[in-house]
Amino acid sequence: MRLDKFIAQQLGVSRAIAGREIRGNRVTVDGDIIKNAAFKLLPEHAVAYDGNPLSAATRATLFYA
């Protein structure tokens, strides 16, 4: 998944705003500042926004019979 898409989903903002935050040095991946919004995230990457860790929440799907 692209970094900008992940940030947009986690923060509930548009990808344009997520890109602005990434370019503003507010996002780190594994402790390194990433300025490229198209950076490809892997499941083992640790992402933080303003020093606060973000995690990919797993989504549960309920099926009703």
Automatic annotation (TrEMBL):
It holds the Pfam family S4. The keyword Lyase applies. Its EC number is 4.2.1.70, 5.4.99.19. It comes from the Bacteria. Keywords: Isomerase, Lyase, RNA-binding. Residues 1-59 form the RNA-binding S4 domain. InterPro entries: S4_RNA-bd (IPR002942), S4_RNA-bd_sf (IPR036986). GO terms for molecular function: 16S rRNA pseudouridine(516) synthase activity; pseudouridylate synthase activity; RNA binding. Gene3D superfamilies: RNA-binding S4 domain. This is Ribosomal small subunit pseudouridine synthase. It comes from Salmonella enterica I.
